Amino acid sequence: MNGRWRARRASRHHSHERHFVTTQHKVSFPSGDATLTGTLFLPDSKDPAPGIVVAGTWTSVKELMADRYAEQLADRGYAALSFDFAGFGESSGKPREVENPALKVDDIRHAVTFLASQPSIDANRLGALGICAAAMYMAGNAARDPRIGSLALIAPWLHDAAICELAYGGADAVAEKIQIAKQARAHFDETGEIDYVPVVSATDARAAMPYAIDFYLNPARGGIPAWPNRFALMAWEGWLSYDSIALAPQITQPTLLVHSEDAAIPDGARRFHAGLAGRKDILWTQGSQFDFYDQEPQVTLAADTAAAHFGRTLR
């Protein structure tokens, strides 16, 4: 069944009570030449639990929002793994803090392999949850990884070339960023030095997001020491050329999107949803993009809706 529904309708059906006591386990596993560090959240289930791999926004570390959603899923009976991508947070890997969609998709594949190997997890019931940019990366993995049986995308940032032009000021502005990226890459190849700018800044026009975004700048929210707030300029090319909308027809797994018209690029969510090849649902609710990272009622609503989706589809 394909579907669209509004939050006021969904709230009558997705109000899971939390019955599970969860434990957290620091884990590590290989991904190429890197060792990834993560947190495995386990419910006190007598039987092997379904496993969900969880990841968050571009440049993020697991503590920003992936841990939060992984714990929410474990509270609802799912084993959930959040982790730092290679070159980010506690994971090894160089160069550091370089957003690379292709490598992040590979990291997810290795995270699924680790999750499937755990004796407390049912390897036949594996799902994936991506928040914001990780929606693109989870989609990229799901399109080629049949082990993933179900997909949930929360406040998904899903773009192609046309959406990037709208989001970043037009074709000329995108071309300029790609040229800057090529120059930064050449500088790195020659010297080993990475040209960084802030991810978020209210005063630096070079920032990847040159706005006063409270979530990232507020130490009580995402502005934590584990997140260095730096963006490698050479990452613009890979980011801007990644076409997640084209992935939709390759995804046959049941897929849920939870989004808002006031969140980031809702047109990308609509186009991606329309192109999906399998069973698909979309919940349109309320809230800004950043509300879905750490605010209520958005986080609980999204977690409840995702848990219900996994319950229907991971059997």
What does this structure look like?
With 315 residues, the chain is an alpha/beta fold. The protein is 34% helix and 22% strand. The chain is built from 11 helices and 11 strands. The strands form 2 sheets. It has a 9-stranded mixed sheet with strand order 1-11-10-7-6-4-5-3-2, with helices on both faces. Strands 8-9 form a two-stranded antiparallel ribbon.
In short:
The chain is an alpha/beta fold. The protein has helices spanning 7-10, 66-75, 101-116, 134-142, 161-167, 171-191, 214-217, 236-240, 266-275, 291-294, 298-313, and strands spanning 3-6, 22-31, 34-43, 49-55, 79-83, 121-131, 148-154, 196-197, 231-232, 255-260, 280-285. Helix content is 34%, strand content 22%.
Brief descriptors of the model:
alpha/beta, two-stranded antiparallel ribbon, 315 residues, 22% strand, 11 strands
Question: What is the fold's blueprint, element by element?
Answer:
Layout: E1 3-6, H1 7-10, E2 22-31, E3 34-43, E4 49-55, H2 66-75, E5 79-83, H3 101-116, E6 121-131, H4 134-142, E7 148-154, H5 161-167, H6 171-191, E8 196-197, H7 214-217, E9 231-232, H8 236-240, E10 255-260, H9 266-275, E11 280-285, H10 291-294, H11 298-313
Parallel strand pairs: 1-11, 4-5, 4-6, 6-7, 7-10, 10-11
Antiparallel strand pairs: 2-3, 3-5, 8-9
